[in-house]
Amino acid sequence: MAIEAEDAMRDGRPITLVVVGDSAAGKTTMIEGIKQILGADRVTDICTDDYHRYDRTERKHVEVTPLHPDCNYLDVLELDLQRLRRCQPILKPVYDHSNGTLARPEYLAPKPFLLVDGLFGLHSAAIRECFDVKVFLDPPEEVRRVWKIKRDTSKRGYAVDQVLRDLDLREPDSERFIRPQRAHADIVVRFSPPSGVRPEEANGHLNVSLVLRPTIPHPNLSELLGDADGAIRFALGRDRGAPVDFLHIDGRVGCAEAARLESAIWRHMPETAGPRPELIGVYSDRNERRHSNPLALTQVLITYHLLRAAQAAASEGAQWLQ
Q1: What pTM was estimated for this model as a whole?
Q2: Cβ(139)–Cβ(251) under 8 Å?
Q3: What residue ranges define each of the domains in the chain, with the CATH number in brackets?
Q4: Residue 187 contacts by C-beta under 8 Å, 6 or more apart in sequence?
Q5: If you count DSSP H runs as helices and E runs as strands, how many of each does the chain have, helices first?
Q6: How crowded is residue 303: how many other Cβ atoms within 10 Å of its Cβ?
Q7: Residue 317 and residue 305: Cα distance in Å, rounded?
């Protein structure tokens, strides 16, 4: 698929993905596996946190959270995304999460794929128009809180009570500005523990449920219909009143069943070789690296959509030249 992506670039059109979700929803983890499949040398990646208007100390003085639009240069983000989509370089701001400061800007040139993650990637129509594939991560709040405590205490130097206070402080902005962006996603991803299991007791074996909206053409997974008792289940239904497909993958899905779904996805693009399994589905639990088949399969499905978008863009460019 490298040919299609490069053809799209010659036509001034990198293929773009955005992954949106609340703080510690798993955005960076999701993006990293997709980058591994595509090849890091073919990817430009941006975190929209870099567009924070204030550093950590300044936010305390102005009493605004990073989850409020006024705390971010969203107009600059919009312009930078448009420039990258036109194959023009940008001077991207940098926010250092390790100490909460604004660092030296970074020169960034576009590559065949542009992967964006952050809090506000679906905030406005102008920003949404910059993306071929739009994903929203929607873990239950009790799961996200566990993830945030683990991340912020192990990687960002916070104490547990500080993280809990921060979660409570940010909750009104999460409800008002972050969660409504779910309505604009092509794919909604929800990792959750099995019924009756507390998030901290799941030991990494989280189920994943994906809402596949008809805003983009999903691979035909009808062969999975009717397998109501399997570890991988596909069904038709409604999400908030709108017709959608649902794909559910149990956290303890075996390698053979996972390979079956992966094959069903790639079968629609036979010219594309499957990714090396050791490069995807990897996540950090504090400082321990672990593997999840549901995460890997979600990354494969999202990558499939990027490659299909590249194929379509290359085809459109070829027709234009004829």
Answers
A1: 0.92
A2: no
A3: 2-315 (3.40.50.300)
A4: 133, 134, 135, 136, 210, 211, 212, 213, 216, 301, 302, 305
A5: 9, 12
A6: 25
A7: 18
> Which distant-in-sequence residues (6+ apart) come within 8 Å of 68 by Cβ?
173, 177
Per-residue model confidence as pLDDT tens digits over 151-187: 988 888 889 999 999 999 999 999 999 999 999 999 9
**217-254 pLDDT, tens per residue?**
999 887 776 566 689 999 999 999 999 999 999 998 98
DSSP string across 56-117: HHHHHHHT--TTSGGGB-HHHHHHHHHHHHTT--EEEEEEETTTTEEEEEEEE---SEEEEE
Nearest to 1 by CA among 51, 32, 42: 42
The number of CA neighbours under 13 Å toward the Cβ of 150 is 17
Residue 262 corresponds to which tokens in the numbers above? 């992966």
